[in-house]
Design a protein that fits this description.
Distance between the termini: 70 Å
CATH architecture of the largest domain: 3-Layer(aba) Sandwich
CATH superfamily of the largest domain: Vaccinia Virus protein VP39
Order of helices and strands: EHEEEEHEEEHEHEEEHEHEHEHEHEHEE
Number of strands: 19
Number of domains: 3
Radius of gyration: 23 Å
Bound molecules: S-adenosyl-L-homocysteine
Largest sheet: 7 strands, mixed
Helix content: 25-40%
Strand order of the largest sheet: 15-14-13-16-17-19-18
Amino acid sequence: MTAEIVLTLKGERWRRGGHPWVYRSDLKSADSSSSGEIVRVKGPGGRLLGQAFYNAASKIALRWLDDDPEKPIDRSFWEERLKAALRYREEVVKESTAYRLISSEADGFPGLIIDRYDSALVLQSLSLGIDRVVPLLVEILTGLLKPKAVVARNDSPVRSLEGLPVEKRLIAGEKPGRIEVTEGNRRYLVDVWEGQKTGAYLDQRENRLRARDYARGRVLDLFAYTGGFSLQVADRAEEVLAIDDSEWAVERLKENLALNRLANVRPERGNAFDRLRDLERAGERFDLIILDPPAFARNKQEVPDAWRGYREINLRALRVLAKGGTLFTCSCSYHIGDQIFLEILQEAAAGAGRPVRLLESRTQSRDHPILLTHPESKYLKCLVVQVAG
Ligand code: SAH
């Protein structure tokens, strides 16, 4: 028998807004024996609202699966959802062998991420309910895609909030070495075991390709990681200075430059804040600056500090831009919304005392879809601005 969970009136109203999470505080009662299971959800008046994964131990107690309370959530249910996600990627992913195949709630898989790196799949399961379905999903995907390896990068601390072990594990196939993938005309190597996230920052894929259009003269790529942006812009630029404070990332960046035979990119290990200050003092000027920092605000409390951090790097970047130069500036902090990020740029422009025009406002690549009723699924912001004078 499927367990039933009853919402408060507030919970029912919230659900009507379409948000795929229901918080513990919006449930009428708890039933820890059903944690990890699929439950039927009812409103306080007894109306059946649908089915969801339940976890009594998590603040996010319910993760929505379907509005139909009777639909069997079985193999064919999952198979259909997987196939739909694959079809969507065929539509939106061009020129790349590395992309996000499953983007959690936005694809109907609460808390599950699956990235494809050529013939390897790398997954991250961040909720108790989906974690139990992973073996079935891997089996179906193995049949559909025949991957050479399936790796679980379950080393995110978020898992402990769900009571799940934090680990890296080979699920199927052979442990992969560095995997070569393509993006546009470039190739790069991904270490799905040691790299950040599942190995690469796939959410910036379309932005990297777009940055090519703004490349010329001298380019500064700050927070370069393994060279994502540098690789794309190098052949349009005279020279590129690529800076990251991780020695591991800079070594991988060098390998990627060699792989693409690019001689005009200078990799450097350094702190972006300090290096921007040095460059300003030295009177250096760049025609394109890319800023792709890690999330400065991981929660609401960190927003004020993050605000100052973003303002400082953007202000300094605007100061070292040549006349007519372009700043391609990003923030992946969900808690810094579109409007706040724009305000930060306004403050930076005022501080720099230069006329700055907004050319484009961009977001994450389409293989990281944005579900309108799940605001948390939109987190990446990139503004392209130009110093007019
Ligand atoms: N632009 C990259 C992804 C950048 S991720 C791409 O497209 O692939 C953010 C990077 O910032 C990480 O590689 C991290 O090592 C680096 N980083 C974090 N803090 C830094 C700092 N203060 N100075 C320089 N690099 C930093």
